Amino acid sequence: MAEKIAVYPGSFDPITYGHLDIIKRAIKVFDRVIVAVAHNYDKQSLFTPEEKIEMITEAVKDYPTVSVDAFHGLLMEYMKKAKATVALRGLRATSDFDYEYHMAAMNRSLDDSIDTLFMMTGKDYFFISSRTIKEVASLGGLVTGLVPDHVALKLQEKSIHKQKG
Ligand code: PNS
User: Fold this and answer.
1) Catalytic residue positions?
2) What's the CATH code of the domain at 62?
3) Considering only CA atoms, which residue is closest to atom 9 of ligand 1?
4) Domain limits at 17?
5) Count of beta carbons in the 10 Å neighbourhood of residue 102
């Protein structure tokens, strides 16, 4: 039987425990999970794609069925090449739904052989977003327990550089 491959796409700027919660849930459902960092030209990122990949790779090192990759352009094109049939997205709150619904509908109109699967973020993580994590960290707030330690360290380094620069 063909392997069941899911792609978990996102900006991951940076990866949080909310993302990792979704990855851990997905491992139980799919033979392979590819965490795919999107190069979004219209989005200002704090971290480079290389830094994001490095942080995610470290965070998923104990999960042999998870791999990390990056893609340019359309997600559906990338997924076709990766032979993945499911795009995975996490839902934290109903406020995520509108954006996610439109994205899933657009993706389906591009390729209806690929489905978007939504997973609910665990109750301990529903308030975490990369955006708020960056804001708190840049203002000197503690993000331990919200992102892996190596990510917290990277965030700290970035804000130190910013203060110096
Ligand atoms: O973490 P994010 O920023 O919510 O992730 C959004 C992402 C990267 C999944 C989305 O922007 C995306 O798939 N970008 C690739 C371009 C694409 O395929 N766009 C068509 C779908 S609207």
Assistant:
1) 19, 43, 92, 130
2) 3.40.50.620
3) 10
4) 5-126
5) 10
* Average pLDDT across the chain, whole number: 93
Q: In terms of pTM, does the model score above 0.90? A: yes
Six token digits for residue 102:
């439109």
Cβ–Cβ < 8 Å for 59, 151? yes
136 φ/ψ sector (left φ>0, alpha ψ -120 to 50, else beta): alpha
Is 75 inside any structural domain?
yes
Taking a C-beta distance cutoff of 8 angstroms, is the pair 82, 9 a contact? Answer: no
pLDDT digits (tens, 9 = 90+) for 35-76: 999 997 677 899 999 999 999 999 999 999 999 999 999 999
Distance 148 CA to ligand 1 centre (A): 24
